[in-house]
Amino acid sequence: MAGHYAPYVPGWDCHGLPIETQVEKELAKREVPPAEFRKLCRQFAIRYVEQHKKDFKRLGIFALEHPYLTMSHEYEATIAGAFLDFMEKGYVYRGRKPVYWCLFDSTALAEAEVEYEDHTSPSIWVKFAVVTGHRGDVAGIGSDVARLSGPPLPGLFPHNRALAFHPDFEYAVVETEKGCIAAGLRSRRCFAS
C-alpha cells in the first residue's frame, strides 16, 4: 500500500520434531534406514501441505501456486548460501550454548518447543542495615536505616553480603511500620529537571 514491492508468499516449515514424531507413530516401531525415514518425512509434509492448500482455498486464500517450502531444494540452497556468506565474513564461530534435549524422543529441541510448567517461588525481602560512614553522616542518615532487597531467586541470598548505593541516583529515607528504609527515587542522570 506504500508503493513497495512486497508479494504475499505463503509457506510451510517442513522440518522438525513434530513431523518426525508423527512419522515414527505411523511406522509403529518398525525400523527403517535414515534415508528412507527422511523420504517418509518429506511425504508426510507434502501430504499436509496439500491438505492445508485445499483448506486455504476454501477460506478464499489464493496465491498458493508458488509457496515457499523449507524442504524445497531451492530453499535449502538459499540457506546454505547464506550460511556460507556468514562464514566468509567471519560471523560464524564455535562456542558453547545449552542445547535443549527431549528425553522421550532422544533429540534436540528448538527453544520455541520448550514449555515450562507453572511454578510459584516464594518472595522474600531482606533488610540490610545501612553502614553510613562519612557521607551518611553528612546526609544525616542514622544507624537505624535499612535498605530492602529482593533478588529474582531467593536461593541467591546466602551469597549476598552487601548492597551498594549508586552515586547518580537519589534516595530518600522513608519511615515505615518496620523502621526507616532507604528508598531509591530516580537517576539524576536520566531524569534531571
Characteristics:
193 residues; 8 strands; 4 helices; four-stranded mixed beta sheet; disordered C terminus; alpha/beta; two-stranded parallel ribbon
Whole-angstrom Rg: 30 Å
Structural class: alpha/beta
Q: What percentage of residues falls in helices of 4 or more residues? A: 25-40%
Number of strands: 8
Average pLDDT reading: 81
The share of residues in extended strands comes to 15-25%
Q: How many helices does DSSP assign?
A: 4
Q: What string gives the helices and strands in order?
A: EHHEHEEEHEEE
Q: Can you tell me the overall shape?
A: elongated
Protein described:
The chain is α/β, with parallel strands linked by helices and 193 residues long. Helices cover 31% and strands 19% of the residues. It has helices spanning 17-27, 34-58, 73-88, 133-139; strands at residues 11-12, 68-69, 100-102, 107-109, 126-129, 145-149, 169-176, 179-187. The strands form 3 sheets. A 4-stranded mixed β-sheet has the order 5-6-8-7, with no helix packed on it. Strands 1-2 form a two-stranded parallel sheet. A two-stranded antiparallel sheet has the order 3-4. Strand 3 (100-102) and strand 4 (107-109) form a beta hairpin. It is elongated and about 75 Å long. It starts with 10 loop residues before the first strand and ends in a 6-residue tail after the last strand.
